[in-house]
Amino acid sequence: MSELIWYDYSPKYRWYNDKLFIIMKSGNEIPHNEIDPSIHFRVSSEILAHPSGAILERDLPDDLLVQVRPISVKIALYKQGKFEHKETIYPPSSGNWYARVEVGNQRAILISQRIQNSRKLWLTIIDYPSGKILESHTIFPYEAEALTPLSDLEMLLESDDEKRNNILSELLEQPPPTWPELYELCRGMEFPDLIITDTMGSTLEQLLPRWWSALVREEASAFLAILLRKRIDTDSDPIGFLGKFLPTPTLRSLLALHLKHLILETTPINWLQLFARVPDAYLSEMTASPFSIYGRPFLGAIYDIGGLDVLIKYILKLTRTNEIPRGLPITREQAMSSPQLKMERLYLNHWGLNIHGRVNTESIGLSRYYYIGKAHQWPHRHLAYVTVFNNPSSSQHRETLLHELVLPARAADIILQKRPNLMQLDWYVRHVNPKNAYNLSSAKSISIPRIVETLQKHVSPRYFRKRFKPLKSSQCSSLTDNDIRVMDALSSTLWLSDLEHPTIVGIPIDDFIGSLQNLKDQNVIATFYWGIHIPDLQGIIIIANAPEQTLLSVANGIFLNSGASSLLKIKDSNIGIIQGIFHKSLISQLCASLNEMAYELNIDLTASTVVTYHSYRSNLFSRLWKNGGWDDNVSNFLSQARMNW
C-alpha cells in the first residue's frame, strides 16, 4: 500500500552520494526516482525569498496536491540572503528565483513536481547540503523546462561533488601545522594574529586574503597543506597526479604551476607573497565558485606556467592528421623518459587540449534553426546555445539574443506557425587558428583595415568550400544509445586526457572510439581540437544579408584572422551569421569599422560584440532521444508568450 504524506510545505530531502533521497513519513529514505507516483503531499502556503534576505511564508488561495516524485532534480548555484540583482530573462520568473540562480555563489538543489489538476508546477529550492528550504512555490511550465537542459557549467556542478568533499576533508581536517612548518611557509611575511587552531584548514585559512570566496579559500588552503606535508610526487606521471584533483579546479591549477617548478628544478614560488598581491582584475573571478573557472587559472600569475607554444603545435598536428587520439599526444611512457616531454604533457593538460565535435544534424533527422530577438528567453529542451550580443555602434546599446534550436521536422512545423521568422541552417563551416588565439602578441597585431576591406571584395563559393570544407550532407543508417552519448560528449568539451581512462561517459573506451569513428566515417560528426579559452579573448558576431560572394569574402577575412570562427549560412536566403574570437582590445574598433564601411557601401551587415554565451549542448541529444526517436514536444517553448494564462 502506498504511504501517504501530508506535510505543510513539502517532504524532507537529503542529498547523499550524488543522489536526492526523500524522507518518508515513516522515516524511510527513498531515492527520488523510486518514489511511487501516486503519493502526493498537501500544501497550503508557499515560501518566497524576499530581496531583503528574509524568507517569507504566504498562504495560498486554495490547498494544492503535489506529486512527491520529482519531474526533475538539478544542482545549481544560488544566491541566498540580501539581493538586488535585476533579472535578465523575460517573462520574469515566479518570485524572482531565476535571478538568484543567474548570480548564484552557493550550491542549491532545484526540484520541480507536478500539481494535481493544474498546468503549473511546484518548485522547491533547498540548500545544499543542509536540506533547508529556501523557496517553495508554483511556477509556469517553461520555468520547469529550464531545469531540464543543463548548461555545460551545471553538468560540471553535478559531477564529482562527493570526491571534492573527500579530497578537501582529507587535507583540511588533518592535525594542524607546527610553528616551524608555519615559519617555513611564511618566509618574509608577517601574520601577527596567527594562531594554531585544532585543524590544518582553519589554521592555514588565516594566511589567505579575506576577500576571497569561501570555495576558493578552501582549495587554496588545501594547496598550502600539500606544500607543508610535501605530498607532491615528481617522479610519476604529472597528469596521473593532477587527475586526482579534477573535482578541485583551483587546487589543481595551483598544483600544476608548482609542479612545473619542481620538474624544471627552478626557484620555488613564495605562494603567500603571490596571494597577497593578486591584481584587482582577478577579484571578480575569485568571488565566484571555482567551478566557473574550471580547468584554467584563477589568478594572473598562473599564466607563468607557459607552454602555449606547445599547445599550438599539437592542435595544428592533430588537425592535420584528423585521427582520433587515444589520449594526449604525449603518452605516459614518453613523459617518463624525459623531463622535457613530462613538461609538455603537463602543459597540454593544463591548457585543456580537447576534442570538440560538430554534429551534422540533417543526417540524423534533425535540423538547426536560429532565432534572433528577445522573446523565448527561457532555456528549453531543444535549445543548443544562446549568444547575447550588443551592437556598439548603436546609440541604444540594446542587447539581442541569438538562439540555436535543434528540431525534428514536426516540431519545426509547429514552431514556424507561431514564429515564421525562425531561420533554418543550410550549411555550416568552422575554422580554428590557434596561433591567433594563444599567441597574444600576434592576436593584438591583426590588421583591422585588412578585415574591413573584405566588404569590397568577392570570394567564390568554389574557392571557399575547397579551403574550409563544409560538412557534407549524408544519411546515417541508424543510431545507438552509445552514438547519442558520444555526440553529447563531443558537443561540449572532451579533454584528451579523458580518453586515457578505461571508460568514458559510461562507455568502455574501445566502444567509445569505435562509435566516434563510425560517426565520422558517415559524416555525422566533424572533429576539431582546441584548448581552454583565455580571458583575453572576446567574441564578435556578424549578421549579414548580402550577396553570397560578399558574405564569403567577409567570412574568409574573419576565418584567417580570428582564433576560432564559424559561418552559418541560412537556407533559402542571403543571410549568413559569422562568429569569431579576437583579442579583446580589437573588438570595439573592429565592430565599429565594419559597421561604418557596411553603411558606406549600403551592405546590410551588422557587427556586434558578444556579451555572454550559454551552451546547453552537454546533454542535448540524450534529452531529445526518446524511445528510439526525437522528442517533438515544443509546448513549453511556445508557452513562454504566456498566452492562455
Task: Give the arrangement of secondary structure elements.
Layout lengths: L11 E5 L2 E5 L5 E3 L8 E10 L5 E13 L4 E7 L18 H6 L3 E9 L6 E7 L5 E7 L1 H5 L6 H7 L2 H12 L6 H7 L14 H5 L9 H16 L8 H6 L5 H16 L6 H6 L6 H4 L21 H14 L10 H5 L2 H12 L3 E6 L7 E7 L9 E8 L8 E9 L1 H10 L4 E10 L1 H5 L1 H5 L3 H5 L8 H8 L12 H11 L2 E2 L7 E2 L2 E2 H13 L3 E6 L6 E9 L2 H14 L2 E7 L4 E9 H17 L3 E12 L4 H5 E2 L2 E2 L4 H4 L7
Antiparallel strand pairs: 1-2, 2-3, 4-5, 6-7, 7-8, 8-9, 10-15, 10-18, 11-13, 11-14, 12-13, 12-22, 14-20, 16-17, 19-21, 19-22, 20-21, 23-24
Provide structural commentary.
By secondary structure, this protein is of the alpha+beta class. The chain is 34% helix and 25% strand. The chain has 25 helices and 24 strands. Strands 11-13-12-22-19-21-20-14 form an 8-stranded antiparallel β-barrel. It is globular, with a radius of gyration of 26 Å. The model is unreliable at 279-301 (pLDDT under 50).
Concise synopsis of the structure shown:
With 645 residues, the protein is of the alpha+beta class.
